[in-house]
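Notes, Module 5: Reading structure tokens.

Key idea: the token line is not a picture. It is a compressed description, and you learn to read it the same way you learned to read a sequence, by spotting repeated patterns. We will look at two proteins. The first is printed below with its tokens.
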Amino acid sequence: MDRPLRYRRILLKLSGEALLGERSHGIDPGVVGRLSDEILEIHGMGVELALVVGGGNIYRGSEAAAVGMDRVTGDHMGMLATLMNSLALQDALENRSVVTRVLSAIEIRQVAEPFIRRRALRHLEKGRVVILAAGTGNPYFTTDSAAALRAMEMKAEVLLKATKVDGVYTADPVKDPSATFLKHVGYLEVLERGLRVMDTTAISLCMDNRLPIVVFNIRVPGNIRRIVLGEDVGSSVSG
């Protein structure tokens, strides 16, 4: 007998770096394929899924601003990078017969629909995977903030934050071997201790709207499936 789902509608936040694989820049087709296989599996279980993808594997507006580029211009370029990643994911998913829609916060109608909340909700209800590109469409807001905002707009039951580590730590475990793993942490603790879960705007938005966050290691195959089935994976951030 099939196991019951803990979550029936989720928003998955992928960083651009999640698409790198072993590369230093760009998109690794093998990694995109593996992620698409996992999305295919949970989609087949009846989970309604929206994705927000970063663009750091291609371009970061904040880094461009640090070397003298206008921040707004750099952020707009970063939004286009998220759209490139979104199209790569769409192609991989549709090669696996998953019907998808890319909705962009900045209008570029030749390759993506404009983001309209009611339309996005309708796509989810029809069983399509919705890929939300270009962040919020505004400079100075990260794709973490976009993920929190879209999760609320899409009425997601949980925000899944994909990372390269097993969850939330007191420090970066790659740089600090003494970092302690935190299985459960509150929103306020994340903000007060400056834990690098998501940016403060995203955490505050989730806190104000009581949206739980699960931080997990995307490099472990099957983790997304385990989470939607209610297994204790990664770290939870809640009230």
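Here is the second protein, with the sequence above and the tokens below, as before.
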Amino acid sequence: MHEDGAVNLDVIPEYASYLIENNVNGVFLCGTTGESFSLTNDERIAVIEQWVKSSKGELKIISHIGALCQSDLKELAVRSRDAGADAVAAMAPFFFKPESIESLIAYFEPLASVIPDVPFYYYNIPSMTGVSLPVHELLREVKKMIPNFVGVKYTHNDLMDLQQCMNVNGGEFEILYGSDETLICGLSLGVKAAVGSTYNFMAPVYNQIFESVENGNMVEARKLQDISISVVELLFKYGGPVIAGKAIMEMTGVPCGPVRLPLNPMTESDKALLYQELIDIGFFEEVKSIHESLNK
């Protein structure tokens, strides 16, 4: 955002280059951290278009099209496809909530006809939507109605349901793990990819977690996960992943600007306190060191 609250598209090329440099290979746009429901449909599509242009084919683009109105969902789906998104995702509507797997699938069903060739992910985030339906049951039924359904962004702490999701149809669906602070839990269950707020500014730590788990070095993986947890604790201390996350992005050199109401931006004094606490836990040095070791 600009300081006046307008969307700042001009920073996106720099942002994309920063993520590519840090070995991120995809972006999940206009989700929770991207303040999707605080943006107009036109703004959301403008963001997608600029990211597609700025990534120059080096980042996979997933457009979050979640909406409270089904016609908005369909509009955002078509416009995301036309903008060049590689896939779309949507969280459940959260004012009038679906009370069954059948009603949730029915809400998303138009995506099978309006964007039949675009992969679709369900964004499961009960902490924000209040919709806590068993996702593994969704996976058993959804392909009958939505053939282009491919997986789930799973931002929830129900590891039993997660493992059941991993096993549906012999592991047919791609699960994008969405809880940064417990990534090693998802990896231990066989997850192969992840989407999260803190990956924006500390991707080297998570890339090293992936590598450590793959090599069977769980001691190192737990040590790295502790770094993640320390940072997540600070995020919640200073307003949450969206508010404090934007402040940390500014500290790393990518000026993401303020948040939109009803979220309240951080004060300059709180930014200074957060910056000092990040220094105290060795955040900047640790991320730099890991980044350099991964790129030798």
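Summary for the second protein:
- Residues 48 and 83 are 7 Å apart (CA to CA).
- The chain has a mean pLDDT of 95.
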